[in-house]
Amino acid sequence: MKIADIMTRSVVSVHVDDTLQRIHAIFEESKFHHVIVIDDGRIAGVISDRDLLKNVSPFIGRRLMEREQDTKTMARRAHQIMTRRPVVARPDLSIPEAVDLLLKHQVSCLPVAGTDRRVQGILTWRDILSHGFGVKRESADAA
Question: Which of 49, 54, 55 is nearest to 31 (CA)?
């Protein structure tokens, strides 16, 4: 089985110059944990919800505690916080090969693209686990 069979095809992407305000709104509205950063139609980077949390003040949205410098951070751009040169997988990669890549590079997602680096999907641990991969199943006789 190939990763194209289990990857998520509906990918949320942002442009390298999109603001953290826009990216924050995307994470707030969706249930996604990663966005792909696109430049000139090709994958330029990845931003995880954790990357965003590291770069946004915890006081954002708290009227009494929010400071001017907190709101200014929301004007930063995607290219300033993204993971550059992400590990990109081909759609014909096998699932065990994809697991090896995730573990080797200690990442939680793999953007999926052809040789042109145009995004076709994204593979996450959730995709792998929800399809029963990575889970050792014991027989009913074993106890």
Answer: 49
